[in-house]
Amino acid sequence: MTCFVVNYIVRIPQSLRPNVYDALAAFHQGANVQRAHFGPAFPGWHRLYLWILETFLRQQDPQVTIPYWASHLDGEMTTPTSSVLFSDAFFGPGFGLPITGPFRTWPQINPNTVFTRNLAAGTQLFTVAGINAILRRRRNRDILVPTAPADSNFELQHGGAHVFIGGTMNNLNAAARDPIFFSHHAFVDQIWERFRLNQRAAGIPTATDYPWDPNDPRIRASHNPNLTAGFSTVGSPFNSFRQIDGFSDDFFQLVQYEQVPSCATGCAGSRYLRCNTATNRCVSRSTAEVRAAGINVDTQPGLIPAGRKKRQAVQRNYEVCDRNWFLHDVNVNSMSLASPEDLRNTYTNSWSYIPVKIITKRPTDYIDFQKFSAYGSHVNGVNKQPELTQFGTQKSYEYCRDHMDAPGKIRIVAYGLNHDAYSEEYVISDNRLAVSESIGVIAVKTPTLASSDVMVAAFDICGRVCRPYCKFEPDTTHNHVFAGAFKVSTESPSMYSSSYSDALLSIWETPTDGACPSVNNNLFPLIFFCEYTDHWIWGPNTSPAP
């Protein structure tokens, strides 16, 4: 096994092309994604990755470390997207390109690899309950894919922050281009180190507790402990790292972590945290709270209260500004296609566009505007549709009620199954009404000789999933429930368009000049019904087609 000691000699190139950061970010794509994710190497691979970045950073400042982002401190806010972390004093804006904040010059440095963000309100970040479920376990097989139970699945829990940040962070092949990736994974590493401290206390050898079973077909071959971790071009000793090397105990000597701020310590004296007396836990302040407290961040740089030990990071002086909001953090500038990184800056026919209709039933736990509710008693019961008035208790994210508003937000995503493309779209629903309709357009990779296999899903701001329907041959006049996976091919009939506008206009009909346009519902190839009932969304179809 490769041995790491504190006084090691590192032989790394002084610079990388096109620059150090982009070269390192490129390690989290392609074949390395399969080495880093979906298996037991997950925490160790990312530990090695963090250490490589810190080694390069220390060429500029020997005392620098990566501060960790304890996202559960933001997750317990009423509106996590308003956290002061997404101000110019810390990580910069939460929507669009980094045109302000500490990374505002990145579009000019390398526009081909600049990152974008699209904060997703309602997405569940790390939670205290989830972290505790991990820390109660004692073996890596009980927290890592594919053997971990659902409640302590470490990699699954870590994915919430990727979805929350959205944009580039929500694409595994490009996520590391956003610097918040490394602070997020520093916290993942902090949790894992706390887990390993519990292992040591229980007498479990942490360096060899690598849950590899060559006879388990669920474990990917790329996670073989003796295979390369894939850091082939950054010099010695990084280019010799194997998957199991991330489990080495020598990292305990190299890196240790500050504790997460607590109410008992006064939230580490941070001006950007407050103690929630209801939970006795620290929670992040919003940008508005910081401004109201009279904190002038232009002259008082913000201290990160927790990080990799003995080297506390100081943020640069950037102004904290209140972000203009629209419809509960639905930003008008982000309500469009979020281009996946592997198709960005390529020819325009990389995309095909499919019109989507969203039918939204009023959530049963939405308590405002009672007079518009279809639940309970009805004065006029004639032709009442049970499917639209049936109660349900579909589970939602923690703190969801605080996010409920009259304008609802439904998120639609499309993941490539035989390719790496990803896109997302938002539509607005009206929670005041018993049932409402919305129209959107989702982008998929254009099929060529091979089909473009896609998985689509839709869910509301609370994480509740909508039931998908599509038109099957030979009966293309009715909508049929399906799992969400489909093929887009060049065969007739084509149910997609070559542009966003064509897809949107294709569902509208105007019988004569000057006539009022109307939607032809038979032209929607894809429909989602957000029904909020208790039955399993992808189970047997117990609901009529909408």
From TrEMBL:
PROSITE patterns: TYROSINASE_1, TYROSINASE_2. Residues 37-54, 178-189 form the Tyrosinase copper-binding domain. Keywords: Copper, Metal-binding. Coiled coil: none annotated. GO terms for molecular function: metal ion binding; oxidoreductase activity. Signal peptide: none annotated. This is Tyrosinase copper-binding domain-containing protein. The lineage of its organism: Eukaryota, Metazoa, Spiralia, Lophotrochozoa, Mollusca. PANTHER family: TYROSINASE FAMILY MEMBER, TYROSINASE-LIKE PROTEIN TYR-1-RELATED. SUPFAM superfamilies: Di-copper centre-containing domain.
